[in-house]
């Protein structure tokens, strides 16, 4: 009679993004979340500029208005993270990464405001110029921001062991 041996597989370390959607799905979902955040930011920015806020204040408030819902939507939908976020491991690194986007958007909007001031561009035309500068700054850092969020902030720890 042949003897059958059983081999128990050793536990394996999870992939960096185990339990999360695949890369392309994460990218599309993060981009979709970013579009939602941008829409919220745009309404805020245009409204504040229309009411006479400075480009720096308007763009800073607009960025925060979009960043808050973006964090929760992207965290849950793009990276499948649930539960209470860890402050040191997730929230603080997230704030550092989105700070890059804020600097680019607020900086370019402020620069556009400084340029349009002496040119005496005003009213709706100025709002469009400032809005375009804000969007360009936001778009410039999206890819870098996504890579940092994907590889550093929302990366699953390598030490997680799955039972088989």
From TrEMBL:
Record's keyword terms, sorted: Membrane, Transmembrane, Transmembrane helix
Topology term for the membrane: Multi-pass membrane protein
Domain GtrA/DPMS transmembrane: 34-154
Subcellular location: Membrane
Membrane-traversing stretches: 30-51, 57-74, 94-115, 127-148
Chief subcellular location: membrane
Pfam families (UniProt xref): GtrA_DPMS_TM
Presence of the UniProt keyword Thylakoid in the record: no
Official protein name in the record: GtrA family protein
Originating organism: Prauserella oleivorans
């Amino acid at each position: 009679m042949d003897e059958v041996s059983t081999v128990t597989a050793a536990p394996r370390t999870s992939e960096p993004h185990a339990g999360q959607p695949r890369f392309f799905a994460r990218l599309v979902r993060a981009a979709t979340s970013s579009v939602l955040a941008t829409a919220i930011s745009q309404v805020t920015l245009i409204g504040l500029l229309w009411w006479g806020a400075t480009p720096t204040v308007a763009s800073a408030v607009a960025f925060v208005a979009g960043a808050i819902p973006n964090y929760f939507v992207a965290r849950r939908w793009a990276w499948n993270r649930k539960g209470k976020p860890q402050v040191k491991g997730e929230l603080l690194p997230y704030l550092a990464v989105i700070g890059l986007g804020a600097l680019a958007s607020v900086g370019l909007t402020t620069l556009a405001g400084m340029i349009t001031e002496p040119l005496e561009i005003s009213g709706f035309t100025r709002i469009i110029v400032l809005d375009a500068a804000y969007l360009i700054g936001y778009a410039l850092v999206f890819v870098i921001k996504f890579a940092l969020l994907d590889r550093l902030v929302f990366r699953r720890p390598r030490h997680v062991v799955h039972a088989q």
